[in-house]
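Many introductory courses stop at the sequence. We go one step further.
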Amino acid sequence: MSRDALMFLASEKARLVELWADVVTSGVNPRLLADPEFFSRQDLDGLYDSILDAFRRNQYRDLNQTFDRLVEEGYGLGLTYTDIKGLLFGMPEAAQRLADEEYAGRASYNLLSSGLRECRLSLKSVYCKRGSAAALRVLEDERRSLVARWEADLPTDVVSPHFGVISESEQQRLVEGTFEMYLKVLLGEDEEMVPDPRDAAQENTRLGAYLVRMVDFFQQRGFDLADVLKALSHIARLAEPLFFREYREDPVRYRQAVQALSEARDIVAVSFAGNYNDKLMRDYYNEVSIMLHRIKNKLTAVPTSLQTILPQEYDGVYMDGDTLTAQDAEYLVTYERLRTECLKSTLDFLQRFDESGGEGGRPARAAREGRRLPSPEEVRAELDALAGKYRLLRQFVAENQSQVANIKRKLDTEAVLRVDEFLHDALEGGELTTQLTKELQEVQNELYNREKPVWEEMDLREPLREAFEESKVDAKGKRITYTLDMPPEPVPIFAVRRQIKRPLAQVINNALKYTPDGGEVHVKLERDGGNATIVVKDTGIGIPIGEEDQVFALCARCSNAQEFNRDGSGTGLYNDRKTVRLHNGDMWVKSDGVGKGSVFYIQLPIHEAAAVTS
C-alpha cells in the first residue's frame, strides 16, 4: 500500500470522518447513520481505524468480523449487503474527494491519487469476493449451460427478435463477453485498467472498455435501449432458479447470491444505459456541429466577398469595389443624356442637310414644295450649336476622368465575372443554409417527438418496388431505360418499415438525377446466403477515382456532382448509410471514374424468424 496514501489517511482523519459521513448519507443510504443503536457517526471513528489498520497490515480478519456483524444486524433494519459495502467504500471515496479539492496541482497529487485508488480497489476486491462467493460458485459451475440458454433466448420473444439480425457468432461473443464482465464485477475487478478499445494508447477500466465495445456495437445496429438492457440483464432471470436449487436449505446464502447478482446487473445495465445515451447525444452534437460548420463557412465567405466587390473605407482610406454605386449611376445618367442630345442634334442636322442639297434635284423639289433652303449663315449657326453640345459632352468626360476609368474598370470582364461569381456563391450559400437549417430543425423535431421504432419482419421486395415505382415518372421524363429485377420468392429482413425505404429511394433517385437523358438505370435485388443485396447500376456521370468515400461523408459531395447539379446539402447518402447500418447492413459504391457510371450496393441480413424458447 502506498506510504503517501497511508500518511494522508492518518493525518487527515478528523476531516475525512466528517466527509465520509456526508458521502454515506448522500450517496449510499441515509438510514445507515439514522439509528445510533445500529451505527452512529461516532462509530465511524472506530471503523476508520479498522480500515486503516487493514490497509497498513494488508490483513482484513478483524475488519471482516466487523463487516459481517454490520451485515447481519443491518438485515434486521432493512439494509442490504450493498449498503454495508457502500459504507466501507465511502471511506476511500471521501479521501479522494479531499485530495481532489486540496491537493490537485501539487507535485504529490498523482502519487497520492494512485495510492488512494489502490486502497479502494483493495477494499472492493476483498468485499466483492466475500459477498459474491455464493453467486460465483453457481455461475462458474453452471457457466456452460447458462451461456447456451442465454444465446438461445436472445433472438426470441423472451428477449427480442431484433437479435436475429446479428449473426450467431456475434450473439455468442455478446453473451460470453457479458458473462465474463459479470464475473469481473462480482470479483471486484471491473475497475482494473486495460487498453481502451477506441485508442490502444489510452487506458480504461475493464467495465469502461466493455461498455465502449457494447455501445459501439449496438448503436451501429439501431437496437432499442430497452431491448439491450433486457439482453444484458437476462443472466439474472436464468440464474435465480439455479440459486434456489443450490441454496434452498440455506436462505441466507440464497439471498446473498441473488443480491450479489442483482447488484452486478445494476452496475452493468445502468452503466450501459448512461454510456449509450451519452454517445447518442455526442454523435448527434457532432453531426450538428459539422452542419453548422458548413453553414458558417458559407456565411463567412459572404462578407469576405462583399469586402472585395463593395466600396468601403479601411483605416481611413476609401477603397472602391467592383459594383456600380449610386454616384456611378448618376454619372452614367448625365453622360447618357448629353450623348443622346449630341446624337439627336447631329441626326436632325444631317437629315435637314440631306433634304436641302446634294444630287437628285432636291433643291428643285424643295422649290416646287414651297420650302426655303437654309442660308449658309443658318447652317453655320446650327453647326455652332451642335459643336457646343459636343463641347459640353467632352468637358463632362474630361472633368470626370477618374470616374470614367473607374466605371470602365467595373465594367471590365474580370470585374463582372467576380460579381457574378459572388452572386452565385451567395445564392448557393443561402440555399444551402436554408436547406441545412431545415434539416437541423427536422432532426430536432424527430428528437423531440421521437417515436419508438417498430421493428418487424418484412419482405424487402415490397419497399424496393415502392421506391422503384415512385421514380418512374422521372425516368420517363429523361427517356432513361429503367428496369427492376427481383427474385420470385420473398426476401425476409427485420427492419423499421418507415426507415428502410428512404435509402432505397435515395439511391434510385440519385441514379436518375446524375444520369444524362437517354441513359440507363438498372435496379436488381439479389439473395446470396445470409444476405440480400440491392444493386443500382447507372450510366451516369460516375465518381472521380479516390472520391468514393466522400459520397457518404457528412456535408460533402463529389467534385463532379457539384458541377452537374449545384443543389444538395451532402447529408442524404450519409443519413442513408447510417440507416442501413442501423439495420446491421452496409452500403457502398463502385465506379470506374468520371463519365463511366456508378454502381451502388445496399446489403441487409436475411432474417429467418427464430423459434421461441422458454
